[in-house]
Write a structure and sequence with these properties.
PGM_Phosphatase, alpha/beta, 209 residues, 40% helix, Histidine phosphatase family protein
């Protein structure tokens, strides 16, 4: 772990799926940002810039999903760098549940939905378990904390939750109570005592809705 290294995890802007409450994981429809999401991406770039100032060595990474790459683009432009897509930062694969709304799933599959949020080994048919998610996201996160400088990662609710729960040592059921709206920022810093959470769910002047 590189003392002073910082990793800023940002959730992507909204898509039509986000707006309608549809679950959207890796391997699904991969929608683009809608107009609101594009405006959120520009706002995120301004907030990241205000937070980091003229910090040296800023890298910008995104998941391989379109909404994350599109959200990361204005941030990368601000720092004069490109966006490096990494599949490890993709959202969880929801398999057969992809494209369904949470309301539909709670109605049609109440027991399985509860298991999904309480049992890290539960795997949706055709999808991933939270253990699968942790096993790809957490090593990538720890590698970034070992680098000099700052890494901004534009990713998804699941990977951000995974990293917060790792650093704070909390289980899946309480971790799901984290509010991480679109283009929220969550920052971690490496210290001699291990990684610390600097802040969670920062939305700047846009406010917390």
């Amino acid at each position: 772990m590189q003392t002073g290294s910082r990793v800023v995890l940002c959730r992507h802007g909204v898509t039509d799926f986000t707006a309608s409450g549809r679950w959207d994981g890796r391997g699904g429809a991969d929608p683009a940002l809608n107009a609101e999401g594009q405006a959120q991406a520009r706002d995120l770039a301004a907030r990241v810039g205000a937070f980091l100032g003229d910090a040296p060595e800023v890298r910008v990474i995104s998941s391989s999903l379109r909404r994350a790459k599109e959200t990361a683009a204005p941030v990368a432009e601000l720092f004069g760098t490109g966006v490096t897509p990494r599949r490890v930062w993709d959202e969880l694969s929801f398999g057969e549940w992809d494209g369904r709304t949470g309301e539909e799933l709670r109605r049609d599959h109440p027991d399985e939905t509860y298991r999904f949020w309480s049992d890290e080994t539960f795997r949706i048919s055709g999808g991933e378990s939270h253990v699968d998610l942790h096993s790809r996201v957490r090593p990538a996160f720890e590698r970034l904390l070992g680098l000099n400088g700052t890494t901004v990662v534009v990713t998804h609710w699941g990977p951000i939750m995974s990293c917060i729960s790792l650093v704070l040592g909390i289980d899946l059921l309480p971790a799901r109570r984290l509010s991480l709206p679109p283009t929220s920022m969550t920052s971690f810093k490496a210290t001699q005592d291990g990684p610390q959470v600097e802040f969670v769910n920062d939305l700047g002047t846009r406010g917390h809705h």
